[in-house]
């Protein structure tokens, strides 16, 4: 008997009937003797609907108000799920971020959780209640409503598991973590387990299964996360530390692609490192995530620099860059797919990169930018080459 | 230069375009030198949509969770309106009940406002912000989200006007208070002013323009309320104290009808006053509003009692009554229209009731129950007679 923190994604609560089914599942789990704390996302497309309301008001809606608006989606699903449990004769209570003081800091729309006051939750569990909490939202020290960014409910769940010393289960519309997105590669294999680091690389690279901050948090506190289908007996995937895993010889565990970025190319800018670091600092201070950065060696003191930026931050980013470079020298490449392979095993296996680039070259796939980490190789390629690249790499590395 | 509290109803903010228009209106008002605090209802049919979601879960949804659910509608419109003002380059901030501690007590779904902490509002006004607050909602001492009942945003607005020592303006989809609902009687006259008492009787009798608790509150603190169309130059109606009014000789100011109740008839119950007072106390303790009560003189110690109950509380009410009376002796009459005429002038004019009942009798309209107050006469009639009754009474009393 312990505390189980379960998170249900938007697709698991997208209709009243699905909510009723989750309520039944929760009651079964409760009857097995578990104390249950449940984090819910907004129903189905609610968050998108709220955003499009805001976009009807402004192309660039005020961020404090946008957070206040978006937080309502989770409040709704939360109250409905609690209602559904009570309707079945079991005790339940819903809490918003305000009610359990999910304290956040940082910028609206991408706040970090500083702390959660779990007193009320513990009291409610003691009374036998199933506790339902609103994911994705928090409150900053000014009392403003904040949100944690897309997929933030995963992080809410892990944070609650940390504070409650419980286990964490993420229920979603996929039945686990695959080596490659099965929609993109039909022979993709489901993994029984994956290391935090690998999952982190995969999820920050566009494998949309999990919010990457949730993995970081789980890794920090060594909380294993189960990821699986809601209302199903199909076995999912456990995300845990490598020391707990049966390390296989396979160097590459997963593959991920993302079309969510554009590449910014700056031509012939002053190679003075101060200017570049200034530029990147300014961009970072606006909390824009620059991802891949590559720079060529200076010629006559001038360098060419390329980096990728999320599409939806292109505008804000460009307004910064214009202060650092002549507009003539800025070009944007919208035709990029970020293509990454990930594996703890890469640390001990050489030649993975060269093997992949040989494959690309044999198949006439042009590689534009390259960045690597100890357990990851990422490059950008043209979007038309994406599917071919997935097929040949997945096959070659037995994914 | 003073503080103006304006309330905009759901139909005034039912679309993004309407919200943008309200934003412009507010900025104009602000530029005239007013400090503006705005209370908004949920957009259009949002509250009904939320209720139907809840009804999909349960015929009788848990009331704490229902309040939590329903409160989200106002949070949304609040954030959107503030965004719209900021989009036009003016400063604005939205506050939920939590953020300004709209403290309530009483039962979920019909809470009363105990207090509001206006510190944050005053600070924001000082900084030149237009303050947008969520109507209809509050927080009780347990930290639960509560709502004030249908139309509760009016009460939120008056309460804020009281606490901020401001004036109160209610903007809605009608251009003022009419002697008779103009949809029911096309010759109805709009009133320039109406006394609190009269308005109170009218609104508690089914004239849906205003939340009756808001009138009580305004009367208690002698805050005049302006009621009119949003975004319009058409002059509306001021609700204020009779001592400020030019008292006319006309005994009847208004007429209201309501089909929202059913009549409960209890036959041959024990005439012991203790039993009846017990019954009514029990019903009242569940916060069910019994409205009209009439009782016939006892025969052999037994009396017949009739009273009206809101349709949506019929079920709860019946479960109580069954403990007090044999089921055989309980009958329900669903075919009733409450028909009321109201006027401060009635205090000084005799024969109003007899004049009305003579009219009914001349026109073959059967009167079922009758109750009266100093300034009001209410009876129930069959619903099929409603329109005829409105026409003949409105004409006779020059409404």
Automatic annotation (TrEMBL), chains A, B:
CDD domains: AAK_AKii-LysC-BS (cd04261), ACT_AK-LysC-DapG-like_1 (cd04891), ACT_AK-LysC-DapG-like_2 (cd04923). One of its GO terms (molecular function) is aspartate kinase activity. The keyword ATP-binding applies. It comes from the Bacteria. Residues 264-335, 341-399 form the ACT domain. Pathway: Amino-acid biosynthesis; L-methionine biosynthesis via de novo pathway; L-homoserine from L-aspartate: step 1/3; Amino-acid biosynthesis; L-lysine biosynthesis via DAP pathway; (S)-tetrahydrodipicolinate from L-aspartate: step 1/4; Amino-acid biosynthesis; L-threonine biosynthesis; L-threonine from L-aspartate: step 1/5. Its EC number is 2.7.2.4. Keywords: Amino-acid biosynthesis, ATP-binding, Diaminopimelate biosynthesis, Kinase, Lysine biosynthesis, Nucleotide-binding, Transferase. It catalyses: L-aspartate + ATP = 4-phospho-L-aspartate + ADP. SUPFAM superfamilies: ACT-like, Carbamate kinase-like. Catalyzes the phosphorylation of the beta-carboxyl group of aspartic acid with ATP to yield 4-phospho-L-aspartate, which is involved in the branched biosynthetic pathway leading to the biosynthesis of amino acids threonine, isoleucine and methionine. PANTHER family: ASPARTATE KINASE, ASPARTOKINASE. Belongs to the aspartokinase family. This is Aspartokinase. It comes from Clostridium aestuarii.
């Amino acid at each position: 008997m312990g505390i189980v923190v379960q998170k249900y994604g938007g697709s698991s609560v997208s209709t009243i009937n699905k909510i009723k089914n989750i309520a039944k599942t929760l009651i079964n789990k409760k009857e097995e003797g578990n104390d249950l704390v449940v984090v819910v996302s907004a129903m189905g497309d609610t968050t998108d609907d709220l955003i499009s309301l805001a976009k009807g008001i402004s192309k660039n809606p005020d961020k404090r108000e946008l957070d206040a608006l978006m937080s309502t989606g989770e409040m709704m699903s939360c109250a409905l799920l609690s209602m559904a449990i009570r309707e079945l004769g079991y005790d339940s209570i819903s809490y918003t971020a305000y009610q359990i003081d999910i304290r956040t800091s940082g910028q609206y729309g991408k706040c970090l959780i500083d702390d959660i006051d779990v007193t009320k939750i513990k009291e409610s569990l003691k009374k036998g209640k199933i506790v339902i909490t609103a994911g994705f939202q928090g409150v900053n020290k000014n009392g403003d409503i904040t949100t944690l960014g897309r997929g933030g409910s995963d992080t809410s769940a892990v944070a609650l598991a940390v504070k409650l010393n419980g286990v964490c289960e993420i229920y979603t519309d996929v039945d686990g973590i695959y080596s490659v997105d099965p929609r993109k590669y039909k022979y993709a294999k489901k993994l029984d387990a994956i290391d935090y680091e690998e999952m982190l690389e995969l999820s920050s690279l566009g494998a949309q299964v999990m919010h990457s901050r949730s993995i970081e948090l789980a890794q920090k506190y060594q909380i294993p996360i189960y990821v699986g289908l809601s209302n199903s007996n199909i076995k999912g995937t456990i995300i845990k530390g490598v020391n707990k895993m049966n390390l296989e010889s396979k160097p590459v565990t997963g593959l991920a692609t993302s079309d969510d970025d554009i590449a910014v190319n700056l031509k012939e800018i002053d190679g003075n490192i101060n200017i570049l670091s200034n530029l990147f600092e300014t961009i970072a201070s606006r909390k824009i995530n620059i991802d891949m950065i590559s720079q060529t060696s200076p010629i006559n003191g001038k360098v060419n620099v390329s980096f990728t930026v999320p599409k939806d931050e292109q505008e804000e980013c460009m307004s910064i860059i214009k202060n650092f470079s002549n507009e003539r020298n800025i070009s944007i490449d919208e035709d990029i797919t970020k293509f990454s392979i990930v594996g703890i095993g890469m640390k001990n296996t050489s030649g993975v990169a060269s093997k992949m680039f040989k494959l690309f070259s044999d198949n006439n796939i042009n590689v534009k930018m390259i960045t690597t980490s100890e357990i990851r190789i990422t490059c950008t390629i043209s979007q038309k080459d994406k599917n071919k690249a997935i097929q040949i790499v997945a096959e070659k590395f037995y994914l």
